[in-house]
TrEMBL record:
<feature type="binding site">
    <location>
        <position position="212"/>
    </location>
    <ligand>
        <name>S-adenosyl-L-methionine</name>
    </ligand>
</feature>
<feature type="domain" description="Methyltransferase small">
    <location>
        <begin position="84"/>
        <end position="150"/>
    </location>
</feature>
<keyword id="KW-0489">Methyltransferase</keyword>
<feature type="binding site">
    <location>
        <begin position="105"/>
        <end position="109"/>
    </location>
    <ligand>
        <name>S-adenosyl-L-methionine</name>
    </ligand>
</feature>
<feature type="binding site">
    <location>
        <position position="128"/>
    </location>
    <ligand>
        <name>S-adenosyl-L-methionine</name>
    </ligand>
</feature>
<dbReference type="InterPro" id="IPR019874">
    <property type="entry name" value="RF_methyltr_PrmC"/>
</dbReference>
<keyword id="KW-0949">S-adenosyl-L-methionine</keyword>
<dbReference type="InterPro" id="IPR050320">
    <property type="entry name" value="N5-glutamine_MTase"/>
</dbReference>
<comment type="similarity">
    <text>Belongs to the protein N5-glutamine methyltransferase family. PrmC subfamily.</text>
</comment>
<dbReference type="GO" id="GO:0032259">
    <property type="term" value="P:methylation"/>
</dbReference>
<feature type="domain" description="Release factor glutamine methyltransferase N-terminal">
    <location>
        <begin position="4"/>
        <end position="62"/>
    </location>
</feature>
<dbReference type="InterPro" id="IPR007848">
    <property type="entry name" value="Small_mtfrase_dom"/>
</dbReference>
<dbReference type="GO" id="GO:0008168">
    <property type="term" value="F:methyltransferase activity"/>
</dbReference>
<dbReference type="Pfam" id="PF17827">
    <property type="entry name" value="PrmC_N"/>
</dbReference>
<dbReference type="Pfam" id="PF05175">
    <property type="entry name" value="MTS"/>
</dbReference>
<dbReference type="InterPro" id="IPR040758">
    <property type="entry name" value="PrmC_N"/>
</dbReference>
<feature type="binding site">
    <location>
        <position position="157"/>
    </location>
    <ligand>
        <name>S-adenosyl-L-methionine</name>
    </ligand>
</feature>
């Protein structure tokens, strides 16, 4: 930390200067002794000023790396965090061959996109309350070449998923489903998902439901670092009065959308392990387990639907 509380001021300055000049890190190193034109210097000073006011480098540059991939951000998305990479690792392990996942509150789309980039056999659906966030997510899916296997729907948690009252026959080979391998059809008129399933019954639904929902207690948000509280969208942070509101919805409804044998993986705050495992156990899930991140903090709850 320097005097003003910046963890890596020299690196931040270098990144912002490179961005202001439109140069890659390599070009920055090769051309470091060249003079900078007045216009560019002014541009860089403006970027530095934003950083000094507490905005993160990622927000200023408009993207952040997650799971080795660059994700575009906008005003409605949280910055993907390195802690969330554990959820991706676990999702990659949990997803069966040809599996389908549902991501709730997708933000930049970082979780399902990272999964699908690493699993060409898999496909998925992602929802978010914010239409603006979904614009960023859709762009990120296209940029990383998974847009054909990932459908974005706008709405709260499970709301955009509507069970198909007249299920079509199970998807067999070509032609019946609009997207490769999806057991769902999209109703473009209502922007909702019609879950078709493979043969209906216990075999219908997703193999895996994942979420990194907003989980910060409303009152605690004010105490967070400026970088978070002033620049990350409230909607993406606020988990209600006790920070658990999204987990209640997910625990109560996830089994309606999971195949038998399917799993839920949710990211949690370091002090929410007991409360969130309790919610999933009370909702009838089995094998509810807590997983720690690289810092040794509780970070993911896994629950089975048998
Ligand atoms: N799922 C997204 C992420 O992990 C968004 C999370 C959120 O907005 N709370 O970055």
């Amino acid at each position: 930390m320097d005097r003003q509380g910046f963890a890596s001021p020299a690196l931040d300055a270098k990144l912002l200067a490179g961005y202001g000049l439109g140069l890659t890190a390599l070009d920055m190193a090769l051309r470091e002794n060249e003079p900078v034109e007045a216009g560019a210097a002014e541009r860089i000073a403006g970027l530095m000023q934003r950083r000094l006011s507490g905005e993160s480098v990622a927000r200023i540059i408009g993207e952040r790396e997650f799971y080795g991939l660059a994700f575009a951000l906008n005003g409605a998305t949280l910055e993907p965090r390195p802690e969330t990479e554990l959820l991706v690792d676990m999702a990659l392990d949990a997803l069966p061959q040809g599996g389908q996942l549902l991501d709730l509150g997708t933000g930049t789309g970082c979780i399902p996109i990272a999964v699908l980039v690493n699993r060409a056999d898999a496909s998925g659906v992602a929802t978010d309350l914010s239409a603006e966030a979904l614009v960023a997510a859709q762009g990120n899916a296209e940029r990383h070449g998974v847009a054909e296997r990932l459908v974005f729907l706008q709405g709260s948690w499970f709301e955009p998923l509507i069970e198909n009252p007249h299920p079509s026959p199970p998807h067999k080979g070509e032609g019946t489903a609009p997207r490769v391998g999806l057991v769902a059809e999209i109703d473009h008129q209502t922007n909702s998902l019609l879950l078709v399933g493979r043969g209906g019954g216990s075999d219908a639904g997703f193999d895996l439901i994942v979420s990194n929902p907003p989980y910060i207690n409303s009152a605690v948000i004010e105490t967070l670092a400026d970088e978070v509280k002033s620049f990350d969208p409230r909607l993406a942070l606020d988990g209600g009065p006790d920070g658990l509101a999204p987990y209640r919805v997910i625990a109560a409804q996830a089994r309606n959308w999971l195949k038998r044998g399917g799993r839920v993986l949710v990211e949690i705050g370091y002090d929410q392990g007991e409360a969130v495992t309790g919610l999933f156990e009370a909702a009838g899930f089995t094998d509810v387990t807590l997983h720690k991140d690289l810092n040794g903090l509780d970070r993911v709850v896994s629950a089975h639907h048998v």
